[in-house]
Design a protein that fits this description.
Number of domains: 1
Oligomer: single chain
Shape: globular
Strand content: over 45%
CATH topology: Maltoporin, Chain A
CATH class: Mainly Beta
Helix content: under 10%
Number of helices: 3
Length: about 700
């Protein structure tokens, strides 16, 4: 497959950027309503009457849920990806600059940057396979939360429409078609945090035009500032009714940042010298390589279509994504190269195209309600360059590997819903996936072709409801894909040693029992006990800067979530998740490093009492094993965030967010691996020194937001 031409790629970027900038500015101007309002249909008002949907009687599992736009709006978030923390048991953190994809933790998984948790935004997939930094890399910085129509989430491999990366769970974040008001936001805060947003919608022709434009800058608390700056834009034109509709969405994102990666604990309080900025005393917010950082872009076009004819519903989504990343990281400092240091550059350039389509038939078999769905999914990642370089101060010293990978996948699935009795229904599904990889490596020994396939049956049984309580049994097979380069590799590009090929697709097997209840008025409660096995675990490798296939694993856990709305102006929620995670037959030990154990969250929010609003949220991330034998464990992290706001003039609101109110000195992430500081002896067998490497959580931060809605 030929390499994509830069000319067409730049044209796509320019078209999307110019369209977003031009139409957003044009439609946001005061004269626009006059141009289109003369006798033409006006926007319907969107009114949220409840903070969360009661899913008793309609959900397929006890862990399935819907997060409404109101819930997203009420929660203060310090980074975009944290809106996913509205999913009970899901934790978000960061181990580098804010422009990099977040770290995700769910159901005993340290998901790295997205492996085993599938996400989609406005109809397009986010996870990227065979990625330069990690399998399933999921960067949400291109998302604008104000235009997201909520979060639809599930956990476990029980849903036929979800394929790769969904063993632990999946979250779909659709775009709204219209906004009830035009939105103007100005945000400012400590560490030079700044954000500006304009968003709105207008009825044009036979449809609605949604637009949003976001500018962002954040230096962060670091001794060497992140200086993260990004520009986001979105245009969406939709028309039709709920049953028959079509929408086209254009999105564009570009970001640049410096970064403070995780630092060795033993380095704190020492003086370290680098060419880039001389010598400095390293504290918790210091950097051992101030030239780390990155730049990324993502431009996409998505078309979504739905048609309803009688008892038949047809859906189709077509997408194209132009993506790029350059990431500079230094995890081990001077372990491998005592002279120039160990900084690496990871580069990814790709075009992603895909199609998802499904056909659903509603009907009856005798007196029993029945629904059948068949779906087809096709995706191609034309990865023109996925590369790893050894660098110093972002200058390339040598090429470790540079590959061109064409990865294609096809899937077909069938799912049947059947109402056997008034209090008993089932969902049975089966999914078949087929993958092909074509790898052209700078080392011909690592080039080649590979293919793999897998079939995944699934079954759900639902009992009730009795006394507004429903019970679920879920079981199913799923999978995640491995990096395509691993399917053809024969020589390790870093060492030159022989390397063993990996299976392209890795089996996951899961089951759970659970209950969902709305017995107590205004209270929704969910309880789930689950298990999940993987035939091969993906683990993070600090010196290589990515993930690699490991031994089989076993996980089990319990989740308990509650959402209480006793009055229209008061919301209380609390959830707790605990998991046990083990390697199977690993001689180094059976604990999975960085696998989360206890995760908890609780919050209270008061909305619109004589113009006032506010709340507070507690977040707990428990200790976890950092080594296979559990001899080294991380510390726990507990933080409290808060918000207070006031509508001081009609349609104008001011908000004050305070993050980490008590200024807890805790870590966002902690790893344990060998490294070597500048000037240190080589260490035992020249293998450096094992140490905890941490990235501190941000200290207390204040952010002030002015919101206008017209």
């Amino acid at each position: 497959m030929s390499k994509p031409r830069n000319t067409s790629k730049n044209n796509l970027k320019n078209i999307i950027l110019q369209a977003i900038l031009g139409i957003a500015i044009f439609t946001a101007s005061p004269s626009v309503p006059d141009l289109f309002a003369g006798g033409i249909q006006t926007l319907d008002t969107v009114e949220v009457t409840d903070s969360a949907e009661n899913l008793v009687g309609s959900a397929d599992s006890s862990n399935e849920g819907t997060v409404t736009p109101r819930q997203i709006e009420e929660r203060p978030v310090s980074r975009t990806g944290e809106i996913l923390e509205t999913v009970p048991g899901l934790e978000i953190s960061q181990h580098s600059g804010e422009g990099k994809a977040n770290q995700y933790y769910l159901r005993g998984f340290q998901l790295d940057h997205g492996t085993d948790f599938a996400t989609s935004v406005c109809g397009e997939p986010v996870n990227l396979p065979t990625h330069a930094h990690g399998q399933g890399y999921s960067d949400l910085n291109f998302m604008i939360p104000e235009v997201i129509g909520g979060i639809q989430y599930v956990k476990g491999p029980y849903f036929a429409e979800n394929g790769d990366f969904s063993a632990a769970g999946a979250a779909n974040m659709p775009c709204v078609n219209t906004l009830p008001n035009k939105i103007f936001k100005l945000e400012g805060g400590t560490d030079q945090y700044r954000r500006a947003l304009i968003a709105g919608s207008s009825h044009i022709g036979s449809g609605d035009l949604l637009y949003a434009l976001e500018g962002f800058f954040n230096a962060g608390p670091w001794d060497h500032p992140d200086n993260y700056r990004k520009l986001n834009g979105l245009l969406r034109y939709s028309w039709g009714s709920t049953e028959n509709q079509f929408a086209i969405t254009l999105m564009g994102y570009h970001g640049n940042w410096d970064a403070t990666d995780q630092i060795a604990k033993r380095a704190i309080g020492t003086v370290q010298c680098r060419i880039v900025d001389g010598c400095a005393l390293i504290d918790r917010f210091g950097s051992l390589d101030p030239s780390d950082g990155g730049r990324s872009y993502r431009y996409s076009a998505v078309g979504e279509w739905q048609r309803t004819v009688g008892d038949s519903v047809t859906k189709a989504t077509l997408y194209a994504i132009d993506y790029g990343l350059d990431l500079w990281s230094d995890f081990t400092y001077f372990l491998n190269d005592p002279v120039n240091g160990d900084q690496i550059q990871q580069t990814d350039r790709r075009i992603v195209t895909g199609l998802r389509t499904s056909q659903t038939w509603l009907g009856k078999l005798g007196d029993h309600e029945m629904e059948n769905t068949i779906g087809i999914q096709v995706r191609n990642d034309n990865i023109a360059k996925v590369a790893l370089y050894h660098t110093a101060d972002r200058m390339i010293l040598e090429t470790v590997s540079q590959d061109h990978v064409a990865q294609t996948s096809e899937a077909v699935y069938f799912q049947n819903r059947f109402q056997w009795m008034e209090k008993f229904r089932t969902i049975a599904g089966i999914r078949a996936d087929f993958y092909q990889w074509h790898v052209i490596s700078d080392n011909p020994l690592n080039s080649g072709n590979a293919s793999d396939s897998i079939v995944s049956p699934k079954l759900t049984m639902i009992f009730g409801p009795w006394a507004k309580t429903e019970y679920y049994i879920n079981a199913g097979y799923g999978f995640h894909s491995n990096d395509g380069r691993g399917t053809t590799i024969t020589v390790d590009p870093s060492t030159g040693d022989p390397a063993q090929k990996v299976n392209g697709l890795v089996r996951a097997k899961g089951a759970e029992v659970g209950a969902r209840s709305a017995l107590i008025p205004h209270l929704q409660t969910e309880l789930t006990v689950w298990i999940l096995n993987l035939d091969s675990e993906l683990t993070f490798s600090g010196d290589r800067g990515g993930t690699e296939a490991g031994p089989p694993s076993h996980r089990r856990g319990i989740e308990f979530a509650n959402y209480y709305t006793p009055t229209p102006w008061l919301t209380i929620d609390a959830d707790y998740a605990y998991s046990w995670s083990y390697f199977v037959n690993d001689p180094a030990g059976h604990y999975i490093p960085e696998s989360p154990e206890g995760i908890a969250s609780a919050g209270i929010f008061v909305n619109n009492i004589t113009g006032w609003m506010g709340g507070t949220r507690l977040r707990y991330f428990g200790p976890r094993a950092l080594t296979e034998d559990n001899s080294v464990r991380s510390s726990s992290a507990t933080t409290v965030d808060g918000r207070i706001g006031y509508e001081f003039i009609k349609q104008w609101t001011v908000l004050l967010d305070v993050f980490n109110i008590f200024n807890a000195k805790v870590s966002d992430v902690e790893y344990y691996y060998p490294s070597r500081l500048q000037g240190e002896p080589p260490g035992p067998d020249e293998g450096g020194y094992n140490d905890i490497h941490l990235h501190p959580m941000n200290p207390r931060e204040f952010r002030l937001t002015l919101v206008g809605k017209f």
